[in-house]
Amino acid sequence: MKNLFETPHFLKSFLVVVILFAAFRANGQQSKPADSGYAPVNGVKVYYEVYGQGKPLVLLHGAFMTIDLNWGQLIPELSKTRKVIAIELQGHGHTPFSDRKLSHAVLASDVEGVMDYLKVDSADVAGYSFGGSVAYQFAIQSPRRVRKLVIISAAYKSEGWLPEVNNGFKTMKPELFANTPMKTAYDAVAPDKTKWTNFLEQMIAYAVVPFNLGDSNVSKISAPVLIISGDNDGLDKIELAKTYQLLGGGRMC
Length: 253
What we know:
By secondary structure, this protein is of the alpha/beta class. The chain has a single domain, classed as Alpha/Beta hydrolase fold, catalytic domain (Rossmann fold), CATH 3.40.50.1820. The chain has helices at residues 9-18, 20-25, 67-71, 75-78, 104-117, 130-141, 163-169, 181-189, 196-207, 215-219, 237-246; strands at residues 35-41, 44-51, 55-60, 82-88, 123-128, 146-152, 225-228. It has a seven-stranded mixed sheet with strand order 1-2-4-3-5-6-7. α6 links the parallel β5 (123-128) and β6 (146-152). The radius of gyration is 17 Å and the shape is globular. The model is unreliable at 1-14 and 19-29 (pLDDT under 50).
């Protein structure tokens, strides 16, 4: 069976970046959450884990990933000084698959719902890739809940990705994820492993729909923003520079 490591070069490169944190995780420390469970929000049950004490930091994972796969090595360090709240978005990891239509607004509302459930008024928010896009939306629709924002390899609109990546989304199929770290991580914690293909089909269908959270909305984000991007993470660096400027970067104070 064909897997993602046999895909065309441009798509292969992008998907390998998607599992970057998985490679880091292989040699990482393991940490047990001080608290974990499900928050009932917006008609679904969203899984969360809490580590450490201090100012809250919400972590939002990348597409097809779990808390452990994405953040497993970083959480032990972050939780030394922070209260880390890691969330698994709809259909990911422990959070059950749902037929509920995906949207950035709904997923961001889920994040807010988890914070409400845990009685966290505001937090720093860090999102990777898919989770970074959700983090952008969260900062737009719930600005008072975000203190600082960390965006890792993520765009707030489809044009933020290179054309090769957007074209690659259109060729993605569930079988490409066979024998990958994402499948292994999913099988380890998913409440219903038979939903794997349904979950992939839902996410892939979502990925091919163009989205744009709005230049004007991004320019109104008042929280300090740290943007992190790798050389080959699929982002269009010209568009990334524009994002930097929208957020107030490149200006003389």
